Each structure stands twice: as C-alpha cells, then as structure tokens.
Amino acid sequence: MAGEVAPWNLLQIAFIVVYPAWTSFTRMPSGMSLLAAYIFLFLLCIPPVFIQLKIGNHQQKGIVGLLSKHIPLLKGVGITLLVQLFLICVYMVPLVTHYGMYAFIAVAKNPYVWEGCSNDWNFEPCYGHQGLTADIDLGTVYHTINERNKVSPLAESQFFDRAYLQISGNISDVGGFPMWKFSDEVKNFGGSLLPLAMVTVWVFVFLALAFGPRVCGWILFVLGPAFLALLFTVLGYGYSQLDRNGSQTFLYELYNLDMEQFNNINDENTPLIKDWTLGFMLVMHSIPVWTAILPTMGKMTGNGRLSRNVSWLFVILVYAATCQLPQLTMAPYIGNLQRIVSKEYLKIGDLDVIFTTMAKAFADLDIPPVYALLFYLSIFIAGIMFVIVAMFSILDNLVEGLADWSETFQEKKCCVNFCAAFALVSVGVGASILHTTQAGLYYIIVMEHCVNKLFFLTVLLYGICLVIIYAKQNFGIAERIIMSMWCVVSTILTAAIFLYIFITELDKVPGYKNVKIRGTWDLLCWIFASAPFLAIPSAMIHSCQQEDGSFTQKLKYVFCGIKQDPYDPPTEYGYHRPEPSAPPYGNSDSHTYTYMDEQYPMDEVPYYKTMEHQ
What is the pTM of this model? Predict the structure, then answer.
C-alpha cells in the first residue's frame, strides 16, 4: 500500500499548511482574542493534530478506512466528517470565486470601478472618495458624521451589493444571475460571468485532483509560496509607502491587551468571554483539527520515522507564524484610511473588511491597482488551496473505499481516481450554482451558519474514535498514555466550548445587513446541521451485516474491528514492522520480529517467502 501513495515531503507540508491563515482576513482578533487563540492552539490542537497525522501515516489510510478497520460500528463518523467537509466546499467555492473576480475588477478600470457616488448603482446618502491630503481637517469630517442620524453607506458597499452581487431583497427571491454593467468589457459580454467563473474554479480543482496525489501535492506546493509572495508584496508596499503612524495606531488599538477584564471576570457583561470565544473560533475555523483532512495528510506524508513524528509540528508552528500575516498586511491601509474616514463607516471583520473597507482604502489612498489585484489574488489562492485539500481528502477516502471493495478498482486505481474526481466536482458544480444567483450570498451565509451548528457532537464522537484507534497501535506505551489522556481533555474542553457557543447562539438569526433569514429556512438550517449524522446509524447497520458468524463474533467485529497482532504478519497489506518508538524485544525469543533489520532480515520472514512463490 505504501508504494502506491505519492508521499509529500516535509518541505511540501510546510508550504501546503499556510492556507489556514486565510481565515484571518475576515476574523481579525483583538489582543485578548489573539492571546486566547495561541493558548487554545497549543492546549487543544496539539494532541488531535499529532494523533491524526501519525495514525494516518502509520496505517496508510484515511479516516473512513481507519474507522472501518478498528471501529466498524463508528465508521459512520468518518462519513459524517466527509459530508460536512463537502458541504463547506459547496459554499466556499462561490466565496472564493468572489475574491478572484474582485482581483480582476480591481484592474478593470482606472480609477477603481467601485469608487465614487455618481454611478448608476449609487443612491443617497452615499459616502464616496475623500482623498488623503496633508492638510485634511479631521475635525470637520468627524463633526459632519456626528451630526447625521445614521451612518451613510460607503460607495464601495453600494457597488458590492447593487452592481456586483445585484443582491435580491430576500433569500426566497432568487432573481437569476447578476448581469454586470460596470465596464464596457463585461457589458459587451452579453451574459453572466459569475457562474462561469465559479465553474472555472471547480475545473481547476478537478485538474488538481484528477491526476493523483503527487500532482496535487506539487500544485499545492506551488500555490503556497505564491500566496505568501503576493501577501508580502502588498505588505511591503503598505509599510514603505504609507504613513507608519497610521499603521502603528491601528495595530496598537487592535492588539491592546486589556488585562483589567480579569478583574471583572464575575461580571456577566464582561467582554472577556466574548474575546476568548472569538479566539477559540479563529483557531478552530482555521486549522482543520476536527475534520477528515489531517489523517489523509498524514497518509500522504510518507513512511519515514522523521515525517511521522514531526509533521504535526509543522502544522502547528506554521500556523502560529502565519496566522497574523493578513492583519499585518491590512494594517497600513486600514490605519491610514481611519485618518480620513470615521470608524463608524468602517467594519473590521467578516466580508465587509475585504469587499468594503479594503476596497475603500485602495481607492481613497490612491493605491496603484496592481496592489489591489495582488491582495485579492492572495486571498483567492489561499481559499482555493483549502478547497483542493478538502476535496482531495474526500476523494482519497472515496477511492480507498472503492479499491478495498473491488479488486478491479484496485488494479485500475488511476482511472477510478479520475472518474471519482469528475463525479465529485460535477456534484459540487450543481450544488454551488445557486450560490452565484442574486440571492447567492444569503445561501452562503445560511450554510456557513448551519453546517457546523452541531459541531460539538462531531468533536465528541471524533475525539473518542481517535483515542481508541491510537491506543490500539503499537507505539511507545508512555507516548500512548500521555497523548491519549491529553486528547481526551482536549476533546472534552473543545466540545464543551462548542456546546456553550451553540446554546448562546441558539436564538441567533442569520442574515445580511438588514435582511434576516427566518421561517422555512430555520427548518432547512436544522436539516443541513443534522443530515450528515444520518451516516452514523446507516453505517452501524451496514457493519452488523458485514460479519458472518455468531452473535459474539459480530459483536467483537463491530466494536473491535480486525485486531492486528503486530508480530503476526497481516494477510492484506504485508508485514508492518513495530513502530520504532516502541522498545525492541529481547533476543531470548527467537520467533519475535523486531525492527532491527540487520538481525532479522525481511527475506527470512516465512510470510514473504510464501508470497514470493505464489
């Protein structure tokens, strides 16, 4: 099995795992939230990341294969993880498409197409281009704002809603696809570009998946440095060409640690809980800790002892080093924009910071369009990296299952991989097309709100499965005890925090600006949240039907799977030597196999001699 897997070396892993930083573009933590994020990163993420990468590498299986082998009764948990991951990709691809389209819109017209209040899509009141001058009177700007009863919409926000999305009045009004008219090129096209762009993104994902793990790994390896290079280019221009005082002021206010919050910890209105919850959500939505991704990444890392025991360190440290790059990149632009535009106008978070605040910064600060192009292109690359990694994890589990099910599929694995990739992407295109309509943003918001609604159940079930599988391996006893106990604590704490968030947000109504999504969509929201869990009872029934024999034998199979003696050569995948972290066994037992190849050559193992003569 190991020979059929295209390994990803540690250098590739180091650049592939930069993609989680893209979440920080829309989730900008305060100083206290950032402190919480790093604490949760090292306290809650290390054990599950370590275990998933190691068992995926050691067993050379994805999450469904691991559960099918060791806990067949709960293999539905793995299927649930795959379904949740696919639903995330369904709404993530249209969102990534928006980032990519904004990259090209940024250079479509000079000045920026979203700039000014004299366009057909603008309405009164409208807050347009201010411009940055040395003698600007900030008092006049702020005085004018304070005199108004309500904050006027930014011109960039009006462009995004009315010209780009052409967003409908409510989620039930699909309204067709947006027909752009903000430039002569798109006006002369005669059709809607947004669904075509979305299909193009899916086609790129297909090309990354269809030709196997090695090609996919190299594509990701190229995209990772490209994302960092674009981001550092925009960052370098901001700090070298814009006023550093604006950057320093913004960063000081953003990262200010208000330690007095700990003195009011008993106050129910203290912002401490909110800040720590935001830090927790930043980490959990960035690193794929409780998804099906990490076992597959471990499987692709190779069979070396070094990669098996060090790859988890790359995931943790690379994220710790890169998670603040988006904030640092945007700081000089937003900081200098705040010198000429009131903070009441600017939203530092969610999609508004990308499509409104940064767009206004590029326009009002007279930034060359090429840097706006590079900024949006960097977000697009990081987003498409996530989609490729997620879809690859789904595809690998699917192909692995088909290969185990049929010997014909095993022999024609490349063809099966290509066809399965085409089928997955085709379903993805069909499921995502609705998200490119005029009500598409509403569907993105609903799915994002609902898919992970019951995530505390996912964490609890998955954590139990990981500990059981890991404890059954032949790793070092001390390692298994420490990491298993740590993972149990991590699972309980993570599930408890997700449960707290679930309870506190139970009455939260998703929406966009003044449009709230209620009614029938509440029921659909619960369907999206609970549907993936239907795989668990279905897989339980299937597991019970797979084993022939007495009731006791069936019970042993569904709970324990195929118990593999590490010294008894398996009949399916060849002999697995004991994990090097386990202590070697003594010479007194001449029939004991150890990992010391010099003393016990593999050629003398009776199993291999038998296989050679077959």
Answer: 0.86
